[in-house]
Amino acid sequence: MNEQMQALTSGTVQHIAKTLGDLTKTSPMDAAIKATAALHCIQGEPGQEQRRQALLSCGKAALDQLARG
């Protein structure tokens, strides 16, 4: 797992939001893919609800950005 994915699966909610927010500005497709992959990595792990919510929210923002073009 690369450093960015490690941060998305174990970082703070603020770090997740900043990382994916910055990535959405430059590559919304990459941000959406990484959010989805990180969600898959933490699926079923207890105590990850805040990270899951942050990843879902940021992933949705990336998809919205893609839809706007």
Structure summary:
By secondary structure, this protein is an all-alpha fold.
Structure description:
- The chain contains four helices and no strands.
- α2 (13-26) packs antiparallel against α3 (28-42) and α3 packs antiparallel against α4 (49-68).
- With 69 residues, it is mainly α.
Task: Give the fraction of residues assigned to helices.
Answer: over 70%
> SSE string, helix = H, strand = E?
HHHH
Instruction: Characterize the main sheet.
Output: none
- Number of helices, counting only DSSP H or I runs of 4 residues or more: 4
- Given the C-alpha coordinates, what overall shape results? globular
Strand share of the residues?
Answer: under 5%
Tally of DSSP β-strands: 0
Class by helix and strand content?
mainly alpha
Q: Could you list some keywords that capture this structure?
A:
4 helices; mainly alpha; 69 residues; single chain
Produce the secondary structure layout:
Elements: H1 3-10, H2 13-26, H3 28-42, H4 49-68
